[in-house]
Structures are given as structure tokens and as C-alpha cells.
């Protein structure tokens, strides 16, 4: 999948949403205007994780939140992990191990999460590929395009001569 930058013009009428996309492999900017009843929705998703082992790869989702383009919380849920919790990583997750005991299962939560996304959804977020992978969202089924703010706000570090 090409990384895609997208700009949404919110001054258009309710169902007329203009999305300008540019991929890294393309010099040309493409304009896609939707004048149909199938409007583009803009959502952001964030997944919090706990540690299920001692490697940095031993993680499981413990919370998920979805907000819309008006910063309204559409969904916010804890997730009961299916593996024993080694650490709740509270400083990062904001979740205590005890809070997960009566949380819904991953399968219950993922069904609810998937219900918010459509093939025309534009997902905006910070380093969102891991969140998308955790929630098993698929391009074409759950979203049309992504804007990763980490890519949009890169800075040049002269000390190391690279982008951060």
C-alpha cells in the first residue's frame, strides 16, 4: 500500500467532499470529488496495549477509542486480554490490570469497532498502522485512505542529517 496524504475541504456542501490525494510514487496530485450520497467520514482511532510477556513485541490491546472529525468520542472501550498480563504499562496505557477483569473480550470489541468504519472512511492519526493492524481494519472494507500525522509533521534534524 502506498502511503497517502489527503486533504479534506470541509467548505463543500454536506455530501460533496473533495479529497486530494498524493502518493509517494506520484508527482501528480489527483482530485477526487464525491457528489454521491456516499459521503466520506473522517475518524481517528487509538489503541492502548498491555504487556503479555517480557519482549517489546509481547503486547495485546487493552483499550480502543474512536473519535470523529468534530472530536466527539464515538466509542471508548477496555479490552480483556486473552493472555495473562505481565504489566499493564499504566504510564503508557492509562489502564490498570484490575480494570480489565470485567472488560469485554477482543472479539466483542472488534465487532463494535468494525461497525464504525465503511469503505469510504478516511482515518487520521499518529502512527496509525499499528492501531489499524490491532483492530484488523482492512483497506477497501473499513477505510479508503489514511493520513498519518507522524508523516505529515516530520522535521529535519541537522545533527543527524535525517528526518524525524
UniProtKB/TrEMBL annotation:
The alphabetized UniProt keywords are: Hydrolase, Nuclease
Q: Name one Pfam family in it.
A: RNase_T
Q: Which Gene3D superfamilies match?
A: Ribonuclease H-like superfamily/Ribonuclease H
The family database entries (InterPro entries) matched by this protein are listed as:
REXO1/3/4-like, Ribonucl_H, RNaseH-like_sf, RNaseH_sf
Any one GO MF term held by the record is: nucleic acid binding
Q: Per its UniProt entry, which superkingdom is the organism in? A: Eukaryota
Annotated Exonuclease domain ranges read 64-136
| Entry's Gene Ontology cellular component terms | nucleus
In terms of PANTHER family, this protein maps to: C3H1-TYPE DOMAIN-CONTAINING PROTEIN, RNA EXONUCLEASE REXO1 / RECO3 FAMILY MEMBER-RELATED
| Name of the molecule in the record | Exonuclease domain-containing protein
Amino acid at each position: 500500500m502506498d502511503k497517502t496524504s489527503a486533504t479534506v475541504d470541509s467548505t463543500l456542501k454536506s455530501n460533496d467532499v473533495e479529497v486530494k490525494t498524493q502518493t509517494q510514487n506520484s508527482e501528480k496530485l489527483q482530485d477526487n470529488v464525491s457528489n454521491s450520497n456516499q459521503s466520506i467520514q473522517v475518524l481517528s482511532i487509538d489503541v492502548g496495549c498491555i504487556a503479555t510477556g517480557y519482549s517489546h513485541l509481547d503486547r495485546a490491546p487493552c483499550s480502543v477509542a474512536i473519535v470523529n472529525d468534530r472530536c466527539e468520542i464515538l466509542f471508548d472501550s477496555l479490552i480483556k486480554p486473552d493472555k495473562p498480563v505481565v504489566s499493564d504499562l499504566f504510564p503508557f496505557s492509562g489502564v490498570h490490570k484490575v480494570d480489565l477483569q470485567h472488560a469485554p473480550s477482543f472479539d466483542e470489541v472488534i465487532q463494535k469497532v468494525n461497525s464504525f468504519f465503511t469503505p469510504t472512511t478516511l482515518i487520521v492519526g499518529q502512527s496509525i498502522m499499528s492501531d489499524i493492524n490491532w483492530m484488523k481494519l482492512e483497506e477497501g472494507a473499513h477505510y479508503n485512505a489514511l493520513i498519518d500525522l507522524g508523516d505529515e509533521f516530520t522535521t529535519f534534524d541537522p545533527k543527524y542529517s535525517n528526518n524525524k
